[in-house]
Amino acid sequence: MESKWLMYVLFTLFLLEGLWCQGCWDEERTSLLQLKTFFIKSWHLRNWERGEQNSDCCQWEGVECNSATGRVITLNLNYSSYKELDRDWYPLHSLMEWENVYLNASLFLTFVELKSLHLAGYGMAGCIENEGFERLSKLRNLEILDLGYNMLNNSILSSLTELSSLKSLYLVGNKFEASNHADGFEKLFKLRNLEILDLNDNMLNNCILSSLSELPSLKSLYLAANKFEASDYADGFERLSKLRNLEILDLSYNMLNNSILSSLSELPSLKSLYLANNKFQASNHGNVEMVNVCATYTLLIGRAVVPTVLGLRENCSPPTQTFLQFYILSKKLGFLKLSKRLSNLEILNLQGNFFTNSILPYLSELLSLKYLNLADNNLQASNRVEADLEKLSRLDHLEVLDLGGVNFSYNILSSLASLPSLKLLFLKSGTIRMNPSTRDFHNLSKVEGIFLEYSVLPTNFFRDIGALTSLKRLSLFNCGLSDSLTSPGLCELTHLLELDVGSNYLGGALPSCLANLTSLKSLSLDSNNFSGDIALSPLNKLTSLYNLSISDNHFQIPISFRPFFNHSKLKHIYAKNNEFYVDTNTESLEPTFQLNTLVLSGYGDCGGIPNFLHSQHDLEHLDLSHLNLTGEFPIWLLENNTRLHTLLLANNSLSGPIGFPSHFDHMNLEVLDISKNFFEGHIQMEIKTSLPSLRNLNISRNSLTGSISPSIGDMKLYYLDLSRNSLIGSIPPSIGDMKLYYLDLSRNSLTGSIPPSIGDMKLYHLDLSHNNLSGGIPDELTMGCSSLSVLVLSNNNLQGHIFSEKFSLFQLEELQLDGNHFSGSIPKGLSNCSSLSSIDFSNNNLSGKIPSWMGNLSYLREIIMPNNGLEGPIPIDFCQLQSLEILDLSNNNISGSLPACFKPMEINHVHLSKNRLEGSLITQFCNSFSLITLDLSDNQLSGNIPDCINMLGELSYLILKNNNLIGEIPIQLCKLQKLSLIDLSQNHLSGYIPSCLNITTFDEASKVDPSTAQVVAQPPGGPISTDEPVYFTTKSVSYSYKGKLLTYMSGIDFSCNKLTGEIPNEIGHLNKIHVLNLSHNFLVGQIPTTFSNLEQIESLDLSYNNLSGKIPPQLVKLHYLSIFSVAYNNLSGKTPAWVKQFATFNKNCYQGNPLLCGEPMRSCSAASPPPLIQGGPTQGREDDGSIDMGVFYVSLAVSYIMVLMTIAAVLYINPYWRRAWFYYTEMCFISCYYFMVDHLPKQFH
Predict the structure, then answer these.
(1) What's the rounded mean pLDDT across residues 413-434?
(2) Phi-psi region of 607 (alpha: psi -120 to 50; beta: other; left: phi over 0)
(3) Which of 276, 266, 377, 378 is nearest to 330 (CA)?
(4) Shortest CA distance to 690 belongs to which of 656, 718, 721, 658?
(5) Sequence-ordered list of residues with C-beta below 8 angstroms from that of 533, at least 6 positions apart, any chain
(6) Beta strand 742-744 with 719-721: parallel, antiparallel or unpaired?
(7) Are strands 101-103 and 124-127 parallel, antiparallel or unpaired?
(8) In the Cβ-directed half-sphere of 379, how many Cα atoms lie within 13 Å?
(9) What is each CA distance from 665 to 637, 661, 690, in whole angstroms?
(10) Interhelix angle for 1215-1239 vs 1189-1213, to 10°?
(11) How far apart are CA 1119 and CA 1115, in angstroms?
(12) What are the strands of the beta sheet with 630-631, ordered from one edge?
């Protein structure tokens, strides 16, 4: 009877328990909703809501409850984006600096059964007063506390020591540091139950080791990325020998060496040891004479007693420091002790040290090893190293071996074959020489994973790889592989689960045999030259795929993705930079997959947004950029995918207003990029309530109108780009309420002043250029934005001094203030900007001298200050600017000469025109092998053009006009194969025109020799290669060429010099030039008929020379010619036919040539010369326009006779004229007679 009652009671309790466990406790739900307001940064907390549908807080993300009591036992409040969000999707994340926040620890006291609390990644600097972590001591069950990636320091340590139940404490990525005095770590001994302590990535040193040794229960200790050091004497690591239970120790990324190994060998329970990226090395321990000791000792190594003679000398008594020297030696022999004593060691990471092959024999003593990493050491390929590797055959349990960065022959494969348990082999960044064979691969038939990233492999690597019958994972990323995948060996790996051949040179269509790899779950073909239609590829049959990456190839991909509808396991697709098309199959089907990631940005005209996306509900990352998609903003995408936090729709043809329904609320979207579309209308501020989690917003390059609403300050953005729209009005002061790191409002029509509230933000990038802003730069900006790296205020109406004395922008890297009305001198505050790389003050009213401190800015790459009133010489301190790439000081009042020491090696563009520079054109730039532009025009330079100019192989634009240069045009110019523009006009050059000149366009030169084409760095503000203008006279007007237009421009201007000789026929073969000006010289000879080959010529000026002969009639083929002049020469014959372009040239183009005829000059029929006498030396020759002298003499005699006959006829007809003629003749004879009588000597009378 009693047993029945007992069963009844138990059954009743079971039912009550079931009732109790339905949902979480009300007070805990209330506390969670209070916590949500503090931890709002974690997007996964957005489903914490009130209401009946969401009442069970045990089902909320990040919450775990006790299944029996319903009490919360785990709270994961980590800012998930801190660790999980891919930085490719959120580029700002790595630059964020969290503002200091302070926690109220009492908020957690409601959770009485809490065991695990995770608070990582919030920028917490501590707790509010009297509400510190010591309050958590009431949580008797708390075992795990994660405070990683905050801004905590030693001040919280004393409060943590009250949490006696803690077993795991994570303090990674904070600001803890150690010192010789009390720092809080000495109190950690109270945590008697602590088993895991993570102090990675802090600023700790050896001073805390004695405190850590007082944690008797410690099993895992992480001290990586700190400031620990080692010495030959006591360094504190010997204290760790007290941690008899320690199983995991991480000392990676410190400054340790072999001297600590002896201490580490005293940790008998150690199973995992991480010593990566320190200063460890292996030496020849057999040479015990390295220490000068006159004694014999016995070293205890493990259980072995080894007598060792240390420098024993005859009749020598032990010196007083013998014991100390022996102690040092024992430290140097620490690796030998370590290999003997750590018999339980299973994981050993020695990556990134200085070990040589001599370490291998000692590793063979670690018989329990399962994981060994020797990557990036000094191991060398040799017969001995392969023999030493064979000694590792004793490691029967070794499963993972990493030998990355080592060059081996294929014999290594046979050496590793003796490792019976080997499953994963890493040979990253190495070189495998010799050709593989089937036998070589058979040696590794049991290996399941081979990773050869960044290695150098033979071209036939795939031939026999099929012998690796157990292979499941194969990575050949960036191994220089070429040809195709047609080799059958790869297709024989039927157990393969992961294959990565990305970033190689593989091409062609995918082989059909890839369909054999039916087990494949992850396939990466990124960055190759594969082609073909994906719809017809073997990928359609790989239905086990989970991850597919085919970006950066030449595939043709149907935008519907219909070929993959049967891939039910597919979660991630990366297919950017391929060609997408709209397939003709209109059959209505739904895919079986539910994607998490879809990246389809590429090129093609794809119509509307793909229909299959209507059936997707689990998307988190979606990129449909650059597909020319049409339609309106797809709100339905957000409604269907509530977990979506990245949506990229840039560079499409989407249109309409950007609006959200009033009821719409998407809690998780963080990144939205709809730039470069056709959206119009006002910026709807409903976006702040519809997308409350939005942090990154890019709506640039659209057609937005209206003003920026003051309520924009209510948004919680970190990144905002509204550039290249049609926004008007002023910038609202409320914009400073946001915590922006990136703000771009450039190229709108904004007016007013820059609001001082901008200084309240922690901006690193600010661009307000190309607006109508006025006023000055507010002091609040220059004082408050101390993290500002890029400041662009170009092309506004700003005025006053650039910066006041209140200046703290010491992190500036790029400063663009061009196109304003700034006055005064260059601010001295910039001298403290040690990272400054780019300055653009062009088109302002600056005055004064160029400050010498600019030469101390060692990172300076661009100095752009044309069109100001700067004066004085170029400072000699500029000689220190070895990284300088652009120097533009044109149109100032710079005087003096270039400093003799100024020889920048990396410079690309020099613009010093329109100044008062003087002196000879010396050879400063002869070693500037990257020089593209040299513009020294409109100065007072003298001397010859230096012969060393041929060393400037990249030179494209040489502008030296309007100086006082003398001498001949150097023949060395012919060696400049990339020359596009050359202007030597208005100088005093003489001699002949070199016939070997080679003029092309910058764009064409880049195509001819892409391997040596100049690549110029791209700063955040845009390309720098051809942004600075080059002035060149064409069509009788001086034009400014820059940007892409300049790359297509080419020409020659040698006008206004003293050149002589004939025009070389070879000039006519420069068929890419647009301008040729040889006017105002002393050139002779004929106009070359080869000029008809100048197909691109637009301006041809040969005026004011001594050219003769005929104008070649073939010039009418020059269809682009718009300016033509041969005036004031000695040309003769008929002008070119008055058709096409030549019908637009008036007689001013031909004047000064009296023997020319034809339109638009006088008619040739009115004074046409007699026909040429046939025969003689001229027979069979083409008329070259010269005068026939025989014809000339005959014409002269005939004309003379006709004149005489005309005079005789007149005198015969008119008696009066006859008498006057005879009278005049008589008087002339008499006058001549008396003149001779009066003046001749008497002997001639």
Answers:
(1) 78
(2) left
(3) 266
(4) 658
(5) 555, 556, 557
(6) parallel
(7) parallel
(8) 31
(9) 13, 9, 4
(10) 110
(11) 9
(12) 630-631, 653-657, 678-681, 703-704
3-class secondary structure per residue, 311-376: CCCCCCCCCCCHHHHHHHHHHHCHHHHHHHHCCCCCEEECCCCECCHHHHHHHCCCCCCCEEECCC
Question: What percentage of the chain exceeds 70 in pLDDT?
Answer: 81
Residue 443 CA: distances (Å) to CA of 147, 374, 467, 1206: 48, 21, 9, 120
In this structure, the number of other CB atoms found within 10 A of the CB of residue 481 comes to 21
Chain-centre distance for alpha carbon 1075: 36
Tell me if 990 sits within 8 A of 1057, measured CB to CB: yes
The Cα–Cα gap between 555 and 552 comes to 9
Torsion from C-alpha of 564, 568, 572, 575, nearest 10 degrees = 0
Put residue 503 in one of left, alpha, beta given phi > 0 → left and psi -120 to 50 → alpha: left
Residue whose token pair is 């139940």: 165
Contacts with 1037 (C-beta within 8 Å, 6 or more apart), sequence order: none
Residue 877 C-alpha from the chain's centroid: 30
Whole-angstrom CA distances from 1141 to 152, 1099, 1117, 1145, 1217 are 78, 12, 9, 8, 57
**Cα–Cα distance, 848 to 163 (Å, whole number):** 66
To the nearest 10°, report the CA torsion of 487, 488, 490, 492: 180
Tokens of 57: 């807080």
Contacts of 498 (CB under 8 A, 6+ apart): 449, 472, 473, 474, 475, 520, 521, 522, 523
Q: Work out whether strand 862-864 and strand 988-991 pair parallel, antiparallel, or are unpaired.
A: unpaired
DSSP codes, 1179-1210:
TTPPP-S---HHHHHHHHHHHHHHHHHHHHHH
Residue 489 CA to chain centroid, in angstroms?
38
Query: What pLDDT was estimated at residue 1141?
Result: 84
Q: What share of the chain is helix, strand, coil (3-state, %, to 5)?
A: 25, 20, 50
Amino acid at 219: K
Residue linked to tokens 């405190």: 211
Pairing of strands 886-888, 862-864: parallel
Q: Is residue 1160 reached through a cis peptide bond, with omega within 30 degrees of 0 on the bond before it? A: yes
3-state per-residue secondary structure call for 694-755: CCEEECCCCEECCECCHHHHHCCCCEEECCCCCCEEECCHHHHHCCCCEEECCCCEEEEECC
- The residue-averaged pLDDT of 548-555 equals 96
Residue 72 DSSP SS3: strand
The pTM (predicted TM-score) of the whole model is 0.79
Please state, in angstroms and as integers, the Cα–Cα distance from residue 706 to each residue in 265, 520, 657, 748, 750, following that order: 72, 53, 13, 11, 10
DSSP for 652-702?
A: SEEEEE----TT---SS--EEE--SSEEEE---TTHHHHSTT--EEE--SS
Q: What is the dihedral of CA 618, 624, 629, 633, to 10 degrees?
A: 50
Intra-chain end-to-end CA distance of the chain, in Å: 188
Tens digits of residue pLDDT in 937-995: 999 999 999 888 888 888 999 999 999 999 999 999 999 888 999 999 999 999 999 98
Asked which of 122-126, 405-409, 750-754 is least confident by mean pLDDT, the reply is 405-409
Which pair of tokens denotes residue 933? 């532009």
What is the number of other CB atoms lying within 10 angstroms of the CB of residue 1171? 8
| Sign, Cα dihedral of 66, 71, 72, 73 | negative
Rounded distance, CA 866 to CA 818, Å?
9
Amino acid at 331: K
Single-letter amino acid code for the residue at 877: D
Return phi, psi of residue 84, to 5°: -95, -30
Give the model's pLDDT for residue 432: 63
What's residue 302's pLDDT? 37
Q: How many other C-beta atoms lie within 10 A of the C-beta of residue 407?
A: 16
